[in-house]
Each structure stands twice: as structure tokens, then as C-alpha cells.
Design brief:
A hairpin with a 2-residue loop joins strand 9 and strand 10. With 217 residues, this protein is of the alpha+beta class. 38% of the residues are buried. 26% of the residues lie in helices and 22% in strands. The longest helix has 17 residues. The model has no long low-confidence stretch (mean pLDDT 95). The strands form 4 sheets. The protein has a 5-stranded antiparallel β-sheet with strand order 7-11-10-9-13. A 3-stranded antiparallel β-sheet has the order 4-1-8, with no helix packed on it.
């Protein structure tokens, strides 16, 4: 397990503030409901907060991104896309909404997928990477903090509870990407235990809109 944190820096392309630049955590730090001490987010409207306190990104995605965007290959290394956690073996297909993990002395729970930000393109100096990440479901996911505690280099990271084996992050992303999903599918996933309120509302709102467009259903 590698933990990353970062302060606010400016994007080289347009000098916009961002928290996407991270470096390895070198010493123990407090993980509370808003994230890891020393980690920062530039736009708190869309990043950070209790439902997005910690971001994990699969290290296995980087080679695929480098293949599609070779001009950014040297930059595509773990920690570079703004994640806080990197751990081999975990990806969107084998983690579920509501999964609870022990991380050091803390307990964290998967709350929702990440929504790729336009700053990804700016950070790597390429066009279309954020769109590709979203289209292919290579987003990573967020955790809320259930129990605060100390985390640090070499912290234990282990699954301690799974609420719903059917509610994979990849399944949710695939459902959301469907051009016209069944409203019932959206509404069913909205009932998933521990899904963030924002995603519950997104799923229900889209289901409602689809029903309004097809009243005969």
C-alpha cells in the first residue's frame, strides 16, 4: 500500500489551482472525516468532503493509459492522477459500493466512483484522457471514513466487510454509461447500502426522467 498526499499547486498550462499533484506520505498522519492531514483539494464543490475523503486508483490502469496516450507515458505513474491510495490487485471489477477496509488504525468505506475532472487533461498535457477514463470506466473510487485513525507508510489495507457483492463499482459505471438504461435498474442500484447521497439522487433523477419520456412504460 502506498499513500499519497498533496497541497494546492498551479497547473502549468493555465495556472489554475489543483490538488492533483501528490507525493508519497513519508510519516504517519491523521485520517479524519475530511481526508488525510496534509492533503488538499482546490475546488471543494466537486472534490473532497466526507463522501470523497480518500481516493483510490488502480495502478494497473496506468499502462493502458500510457498505451493510448504515449506522449504522456513518462508521467503516468502511481500517484500522478491525484489518488491517495495505490494498492495492487484492486480495481473497479472487484470492489463494491459499501466495501469496508481497514487502513492502518482507520476504517474506510467505498461510497462512489470518481468522476474524472478536466484537470486530468491539463495535468498530463493531452486532450481526451479524462473522456477516455470515463468512457472506459477507469475512474477509481472514493471512500468515506467510518473510524478516524493514524495511517502511514506500510499501513495494513484489508477488506473487513462487504455489504453487497453485486454492487461493483464497474457495474455502477457501466449502468451509468448506458445510453438508455431501464429506470428500474437505476432505481434498484440507488437502493444500494452505503451509496453516497449524490449518486443516489443522480440515479433516481435519471430514472425519473426516463419514465417521463416513456410514460407508457
Amino acid at each position: 500500500m502506498t499513500i499519497f498526499i498533496g497541497d494546492i499547486r498551479l497547473l502549468p498550462s493555465d495556472s489554475k489551482p489543483t490538488g492533483i499533484f501528490k507525493s508519497k506520505l513519508q510519516m504517519p498522519a491523521w485520517l479524519g472525516c475530511d481526508g488525510i492531514a496534509g492533503d488538499a483539494q482546490a475546488d471543494r464543490r466537486v472534490h473532497g468532503g466526507p463522501e470523497k475523503a480518500v481516493h483510490q486508483y488502480p495502478a494497473a490502469h496506468y499502462p493502458r493509459l500510457a498505451e493510448v496516450f504515449p506522449e504522456a507515458g513518462s508521467l503516468l505513474v502511481p500517484g500522478s492522477i491525484g489518488e491517495n491510495l495505490s494498492m495492487p490487485g484492486w480495481d473497479e471489477t472487484n470492489v463494491c459500493i459499501g466495501d469496508t477496509f481497514r487502513l492502518g488504525d482507520a476504517v474506510i468505506q467505498i461510497s462512489q466512483p470518481r468522476t474524472p475532472c478536466w484537470k486530468i487533461d491539463s495535468r498530463y498535457g493531452v486532450e481526451g484522457m479524462a473522456r477516455f477514463i470515463e468512457a472506459e470506466g477507469l475512474t477509481g473510487w472514493y471512500f468515506r471514513v467510518i473510524e478516524a485513525g493514524i495511517v502511514g507508510p506500510g499501513s495494513e489495507f484489508s477488506l473487513i466487510e462487504r455489504l453487497s457483492a453485486e454492487a461493483t463499482v464497474s457495474g455502477l459505471l457501466a449502468l451509468w454509461r448506458k445510453q438508455r438504461p431501464a429506470p428500474e435498474e437505476l432505481e434498484c442500484f440507488a437502493e444500494t447500502p452505503a451509496l453516497s447521497p449524490n449518486w443516489v439522487n443522480k440515479l433516481r433523477d435519471r430514472g425519473r426522467q426516463l419514465r417521463q419520456r416513456s410514460p407508457q412504460q
